[in-house]
């Protein structure tokens, strides 16, 4: 599996998490919570998920020249993620996410993007400059996310296309998809609300069909505890295993990292999607966006 190559272009954050009995209503304070700090950011989380599943992973992004940035890079390096492509920017703060999690594992998240918002297309181009056709003839995967600027996403997609690598785009948060990006036929992995927002539809299946028609590529819509819906021709429902979640933070990141790792290893899309849904479900069994991200053997052993 170490031959599976994944490059993630995305965000790095410090997650500041408060666990409470229930989520607060607007203007309300809920006391009695427990605090913890974890490594986060969708890009960094996805990189960790792919690395734990055996892929060779490099992350392209940006942090501030501060203590949180140092900690973020050290944590990723310990997970086996190559962080040479992560810029350290003077005068910028490392991104921070404030997360509230309730007893049922549901969450509310607010993000201060910090250095993530300063990642440039030029920096991405330089970092991906060494990417090229693989000696074994297989395609690597470039996994892109929307927590960095559009120019960085486009630069990553262009580089992937030029190298013959597969493009996977997790369009979270949802924003207008440029025509140039759609023309590069990315495999889209929105959640249900993101898919509907991107397609202007109310139904996730209709949204997935519309997005697939626009890109000419498959679409995998995540549906939380219900699993996912894959549109690659006729829609296929992929159910999630029945579990009792502890914390759903990062479940989508676990799915995207697992999907990229499996595709890079040469798995067919349907099999990779099923594997990714199981990995995402298992990731919710422990608190924190990364703590529950499973190893390959755990996913394979899941019922």
State the helix count. 10
| Helical/strand content category | alpha/beta
Strand line-up across the major sheet: 5-4-1-8-9-10
The CATH topology label is: UDP-N-acetylmuramoyl-L-alanine:D-glutamate ligase
CATH level-4 homologous superfamily: Ribokinase
- How many beta-strand segments? 13
Strand percentage:
15-25%
Rg for CA atoms? 18 Å
As for the number of domains, it is 1
CATH architectural arrangement: 3-Layer(aba) Sandwich
Q: Could you estimate the helical fraction of the residues in percent?
A: 25-40%
CATH class: Alpha Beta
Largest sheet: 6 strands, parallel
Shape: globular
Q: Give the rounded overall mean pLDDT.
A: 93
Low-pLDDT parts are: none
Order of helices and strands: EEEHEHEEEHEHEHEHHEEEHHH
Span from first to last CA? Answer: 22 Å
Task: Please describe what this structure looks like.
The chain is α/β, with parallel strands linked by helices and 303 residues long. It has a single domain, classed as Ribokinase (UDP-N-acetylmuramoyl-L-alanine:D-glutamate ligase, 3-Layer(aba) Sandwich), CATH 3.40.1190.20. 34% of the residues lie in helices and 25% in strands. The chain has ten helices and 13 strands. It has helices at 42-52, 67-78, 121-127, 150-163, 179-183, 192-199, 204-215, 251-264, 269-282, 296-301; strands spanning 5-9, 13-19, 34-40, 56-64, 82-89, 95-101, 107-112, 141-145, 166-170, 187-188, 219-222, 228-232, 234-238. The strands form three sheets. The chain has a six-stranded parallel sheet, sandwiched between helices. Strands 3-2-6-7 form a four-stranded mixed sheet. Helix 5 (179-183) links the parallel strand 9 and strand 10. Helix 1 (42-52) packs across helix 8, helix 6 packs across helix 7 (204-215) and helix 8 (251-264) runs antiparallel to helix 9 (269-282). The longest helix is centred in the middle third of the chain and has 14 residues, at 150-163. The two termini are 22 Å apart.
């Amino acid at each position: 599996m170490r031959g599976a190559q994944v490059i993630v272009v995305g965000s790095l954050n410090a997650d500041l998490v408060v666990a409470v009995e229930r989520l607060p209503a607007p203007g309300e304070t809920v006391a009695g919570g427990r605090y913890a700090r974890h490594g986060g950011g969708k890009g960094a989380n996805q990189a960790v998920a792919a690395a734990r599943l055996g892929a060779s992973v490099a992350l392209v992004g940006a942090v501030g020249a501060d203590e949180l940035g140092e900690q973020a890079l050290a944590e990723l390096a310990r997970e086996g993620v190559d962080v040479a492509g992560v810029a350290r920017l003077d005068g910028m703060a490392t991104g921070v996410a404030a997360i509230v999690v309730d007893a049922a594992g549901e969450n509310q998240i607010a993000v201060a993007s910090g250095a993530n918002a300063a990642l440039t297309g030029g920096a991405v181009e330089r970092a991906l400059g060494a990417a090229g056709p693989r000696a074994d003839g297989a395609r690597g995967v470039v996994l892109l996310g929307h927590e960095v600027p559009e120019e960085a996403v486009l630069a990553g997609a262009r580089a992937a296309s030029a190298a013959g690598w597969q493009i996977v785009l997790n369009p979270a948060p949802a924003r207008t998809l440029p025509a140039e990006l759609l023309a590069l036929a990315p495999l889209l992995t929105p959640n249900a609300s993101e898919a509907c927002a991107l397609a202007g539809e109310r139904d996730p299946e209709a949204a997935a069909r519309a997005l697939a028609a626009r890109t000419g590529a498959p679409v995998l819509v995540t549906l939380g505890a219900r699993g996912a819906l894959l549109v690659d021709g006729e829609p296929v429902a992929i159910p999630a295993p029945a579990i009792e979640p502890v914390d759903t933070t990062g479940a989508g990141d676990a799915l995207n990292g697992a999907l990229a790792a499996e595709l890079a290893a040469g798995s067919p899309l349907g099999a990779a999607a099923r594997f990714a849904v199981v990995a995402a479900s298992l990731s919710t069994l422990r608190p924190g966006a990364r703590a529950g991200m499973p190893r390959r053997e755990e996913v394979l052993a899941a019922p």
